[in-house]
Amino acid sequence: MSLDAFEVIGGKPLSGAVVPQGAKNEALQVLCATLLTEEPVTISNLPDILDVNRLLELLAGLGVSVERLAPGTYRFEAKSVDLSFFQTEAFRRDASRIRGSVMLIAPLLARFGQAFLPQPGGDKIGRRRLDTHFTGLQALGAVFNYEPEQRQYAVKASRLKGAYLLMDEISVTGTANVLMAAVLAEGVTQIYNAACEPYVQQLCRMLVSMGAKISGIGSNLLTIEGVSRLGGATHRLLPDMIEIGSFIGLAAMTQSELTIKDARIDQLGIIPRMFERMGVKLEFSGDDIRIPAQEEYEIQTFIDGSIMTIYDAPWPGFTPDLMSIMLVLATQAKGSVLIHQKMFESRLFFVDKLIDMGAQIILCDPHRATVIGLGRKHQLRGISMSSPDIRAGVSLLIAALSANGRSVIHNIHQIDRGYENIDGRLRSLGAEIRRIEG
Ligand SMILES: CC(=O)N[C@H]1[C@@H](OP(=O)(O)OP(=O)(O)OC[C@H]2O[C@@H](n3ccc(=O)[nH]c3=O)[C@H](O)[C@@H]2O)O[C@H](CO)[C@@H](O)[C@@H]1O
Ligand SMILES: C=C(OP(=O)(O)O)C(=O)O
């Protein structure tokens, strides 16, 4: 049996400073982009997490030279790419484990004229369609084929030609894919209704430093003038904004004083403001965020006195990946909030575990949950539970750290997908947590 569970003894305030890891979702994009050139690309601040390590293995399998220069810093050289790797069982297995593998498609299509992909993995949080990716690539001239029996996607193109694209939804990885095809396409491409999350902006910046011509970075209209080849680059990942939000939630729930160092506050959009709406005090000093120990926090109401709603939206709206953290945070707040998870259909079901721990939550439907904050009148109680997805997993971990007594969280490889050495870092803040068989 593997050590796939955490044992947590909760109820202890933590204290200290944390440096956020590099952003998981940015890492998955820029790693795929290394395939766009035969010249060396060096990327630093890569987090040591399951999803990144799996993608590194996929790149190595494709023949990319992957050289670790220092912890978190790697040099990539995609000089001789081996497309026969697509036919291997290793490729099928590893590519279907992570969501990020979907972004291998466009760079391979753009540089070698073909790509295959099994149904990519990632969180099981409801339907996650890929239509936007493929209709975008088709508009640039690719021929697309889906084999339903094998759940396998294939694309081919002898040449890609720039076009005007109105994306049918704002997709983060979809935008990244089409963008990576467009940079090497002939002529001008416009991507309207593009996603503009910091992950996508960072990918654009790295592509520009490789020689791509992109304007409109940070907006929902990207204009790309294709070039015939791209060169090498050096790129550093932003701190992971979802991890930053997770630590803010952790500090408030456990009444701890924590400092998040080098948080790139300028890149966090409305994330800090949303925590402030939940009553969490934040102090900004330079690029650090200090969360003072707070006995209680009170959820604000809207100006007219009506109940607060927190809902997700494409950037610059509030990221769906922090909705579970907001929900758990609300369980101990003073006041009530409606959590409205608009994007994903199965991301709120973990509330059952919080209810078992003593939280007051009404799951209205798969997208909405009303939380009636306990206002610290009762502490949550430790229980045994299983982590359904990465963010629910961390939310349950936060709940367990704030709860009275012992909790066991199973299925923690879900958390390890996106949080580097989370138990070690929590221990250094004073948490009682260890890995056990599960
Ligand atoms: C590896 C990676 O980067 N994963 C992130 C990426 O996933 P990913 O790129 O897979 O997610 P998409 O942006 O494509 O869309 C997410 C889901 O929301 C739906 N949708 C999308 C836009 C919209 O306005 N309304 C709507 O309902 C889509 O149909 C899809 O089911 O972006 C998601 C949305 O920020 C994040 O949760 C994931 O962590
Ligand atoms: C949903 C997430 O990841 P993925 O898209 O890799 O499943 C996430 O990071 O919250």
From TrEMBL:
Keywords: Cell cycle, Cell division, Cell shape, Cell wall biogenesis/degradation, Cytoplasm, Peptidoglycan synthesis, Transferase. The keyword Cell cycle applies. Pfam families: EPSP_synthase. It catalyses: phosphoenolpyruvate + UDP-N-acetyl-alpha-D-glucosamine = UDP-N-acetyl-3-O-(1-carboxyvinyl)-alpha-D-glucosamine + phosphate. Residues 10-423 form the Enolpyruvate transferase domain. Its EC number is 2.5.1.7. Phosphoenolpyruvate binds at K24, N25. UDP-N-acetyl-alpha-D-glucosamine binds at R99, D321, M343. Pathway: Cell wall biogenesis; peptidoglycan biosynthesis. One of its GO terms (biological process) is regulation of cell shape. The active site is at D123 (proton donor). The keyword Cell cycle applies. One of its GO terms (molecular function) is UDP-N-acetylglucosamine 1-carboxyvinyltransferase activity. One of its GO terms (cellular component) is cytoplasm. Transmembrane segments: none annotated. InterPro entries: Enolpyruvate_Tfrase_dom, Enolpyruvate_Tfrase_sf, MurA_subfamily, RNA3'P_cycl/enolpyr_Trfase_a/b, UDP_GlcNAc_COvinyl_MurA. It is found in: Cytoplasm. Cell wall formation. Adds enolpyruvyl to UDP-N-acetylglucosamine. Belongs to the EPSP synthase family. MurA subfamily. This is UDP-N-acetylglucosamine 1-carboxyvinyltransferase. It comes from Phaeodactylibacter luteus.
